Amino acid sequence: MNIVLFGAPGAGKGTQSALLVERMRMKQISTGDLFRAHVKGQTPLGVKAKSYMDAGQLVPDEIVISMVEEVLEDQQDQNFILDGFPRTVPQAEALESMLKRKGLQIGRALFLEVPMSELMGRLTGRRVCSSCGATYHVTAKPPKAKGICDLCGGILEQRKDDHEEVIQSRLDAYTRSTAPLKSYFADRGMLREVQGMGETEAVYARLTQAMK
Ligand code: AP5
């Protein structure tokens, strides 16, 4: 089954997607990761996206939509997770028509429910491996050796948009543009709300249950 995984910044979309990739052999399509790769590579798309990302604003719909359309062009049989897309109602409408054209379907839109009061701490404490992209947290999921990735020995970094002011803008953008997607997916019978608090494994168990 193909799924949409959505929720506030820091809700755990990336953490849960990594588990689904490892255990269910799904393919993760993360628009945030795709943009960061473009920014790193200084591609024309990366240059366009960077100023929005640095300010914690959403990249304009038309840019995101054409990037996802290109990725879905290569879609084979492997089930996929759309992590962080769609993030606005126009993106959801564009997704619906692009899936129809390609003969693809989304089985569930899974919403990770985490209270706003939890998110700032999750995001300011996040550290990401500069080499393999693995995600840690300074207190909730610390690496064995400070600043070093357990998996590949890479250096852990703080994302540029994981600072308080930018996080606040991201949370505002979420409330304004992404939260309304809940009723969009509910109207189509696709929405399942999953409690995102608690141990990562407990969240994973609830998420996979909601996919049945
Ligand atoms: P993106 O990278 O998608 O950022 P985001 O949505 O803000 O989500 P995050 O990656 O910050 O959080 P997450 O939910 O994946 O949490 P994680 O698992 O890492 O997008 C970045 C930017 O790109 C956007 O601001 C925008 O500019 C642009 N963009 C991307 N897509 C776009 C779109 N569709 N339209 C327009 N613009 C777009 O977890 C966070 C932390 O919490 C980690 O440290 C983790 O270890 C910890 N944690 C995870 N689970 C738990 C748990 N159960 N308990 C305790 N801690 C936990």
Task: Produce the secondary structure layout.
Elements: E1 3-7, H1 13-24, E2 27-30, H2 31-40, H3 44-54, H4 61-73, E3 80-83, H5 89-102, E4 108-113, H6 116-124, E5 126-129, E6 135-137, E7 156-157, H7 164-178, H8 181-187, E8 191-195, H9 200-210
Parallel strand pairs: 1-3, 1-4, 2-3, 4-8
Antiparallel strand pairs: 5-6, 5-7
Bound molecules: BIS(adenosine)-5'-pentaphosphate.
Bound molecules: BIS(adenosine)-5'-pentaphosphate
The biggest beta sheet reads: 5 strands, parallel
Q: What is the strand content?
A: 15-25%
CATH architecture of the domain at 3-115 and 176-210: 3-Layer(aba) Sandwich
Instruction: Assign the CATH superfamily of the domain at 3-115 and 176-210.
Output: P-loop containing nucleotide triphosphate hydrolases
Which CATH class of the domain at 3-115 and 176-210 is shown? Alpha Beta
CATH fold group of the domain at 3-115 and 176-210: Rossmann fold
Helix tally equals 9
Which stretches are poorly predicted, pLDDT < 50 over at least 5 residues? none
Number of strands: 8
Helix proportion:
40-55%
First-last Cα distance: 9 Å
Spatially, the strands of the biggest sheet line up as: 2-3-1-4-8
Overall pLDDT level? 96
N-to-C series of helices and strands:
EHEHHHEHEHEEEHHEH
